[in-house]
Amino acid sequence: MLSNIALYGAIETGLIYGLVAFGIYLSFRVLDFPDLTVDGSFPLGAAVAAVLIIEGWNPWLATGCAVMAGMAAGAVTALLNVKLNILNLLASILTMIALYSVNLRIMGRPNVALLTEETVLTPWYDLDLAYHQVPVLLFVIVVFVALILLWRFMKSETGLAMRATGANARMARAQGIATGAMIVLGVAVSNGLVGLAGALFAQSQGAADVTMGVGVIVIGLASLIGGEAVVTPSTVVRALIACVVGAIIYRLAIAFALNADFLGLQAQDLNLITAVLVTLAIVLPGVRSSIAAKLSRNSPRKGA
């Protein structure tokens, strides 16, 4: 069984990765744009927030700058695709590689510590709550606000145009939609959310590291696919809820796997556990549908 600290820690991290899943939902599901930039924009958000906080900036203002930096990274990827006709996947890989050097430039070294600095969490520790409960409360509020804003955006005229672009770009252009602008905006917003997640992650963990983005795309996909297996994404709001649910379930599964002594797993097995969970998340919905179809065929028909 998990201790309270491990349980709240898993939920805390799951909420942060829920923001990553929001971004991946926007790029993968809405725009049909495979985007690996997130592996670079996640540590970019962390780096920008950490450096500005050390320079004495207000933590929320530093976090806002991290969001803008993430949006800029996403816009670069989209412009490489839209203006230079570089394949979207390749464009995102190029930006991701470039961001490694950019992040090193921003931090000036491989990692930056925030343990003695004031962060967005600092005022919340004055509340009458256990230390490990404070980040969960704050991140629940942040994720809820992000979910509402993203839901409202997707229902707006611009959001509908973006969804049309992802569904059928040729038809969207025929209706007068500037599909190139929609791709740039969508990928920028997607990476802005990832930059926000990176900034919050660095402040909750007390450090920003240039390698902290490795595998973030896999975690986000696991959260997205796993959440959709639990919560049917029949509407936009249900799809966004599925992202958060999937991220929390993913982190809880990781925590249980690492704390289950009978499994004999250790911290170095994290990537193996991630690969297994992603595989299950991809396969299980198809297996469930196949079983349901067989049961439907084998069930006796009325009047037979």
Shape: globular
Contiguous low-pLDDT stretches (5 residues minimum) are none
Instruction: State the helical fraction.
Output: over 70%
Q: What's the alpha carbon Rg, rounded to whole Å?
A: 20 Å
Description:
This protein has 304 residues and is mostly helical. Helix content is 73%, strand content 2%. It is built from eleven helices and two strands; from the N terminus they run H-H-H-H-E-H-H-H-H-E-H-H-H. It has a two-stranded antiparallel ribbon with strand order 1-2. Helix 2 packs across helix 8 (179-205), helix 5 (134-155) crosses helix 6 and helix 5 runs antiparallel to helix 10. The longest helix has 29 residues, at 270-298. The N and C termini lie far apart (50 Å). The relative contact order is 0.19.
Summarize, please.
The chain is mainly alpha-helical. 73% of the residues lie in helices and 2% in strands.
Question: What topology does this entry show?
Answer:
Elements: H1 4-30, H2 38-54, H3 59-82, H4 88-107, E1 111-113, H5 134-155, H6 157-167, H7 169-174, H8 179-205, E2 207-209, H9 216-230, H10 236-259, H11 270-298
Antiparallel strand pairs: 1-2
Helix pairs in contact: 1-5, 1-8, 1-9, 1-10, 2-3, 2-4, 2-8, 3-4, 3-8, 5-6, 5-10, 6-8, 9-10, 9-11, 10-11
Tags for this model:
304 residues; mainly alpha; two-stranded antiparallel ribbon; 11 helices; 2 strands; globular
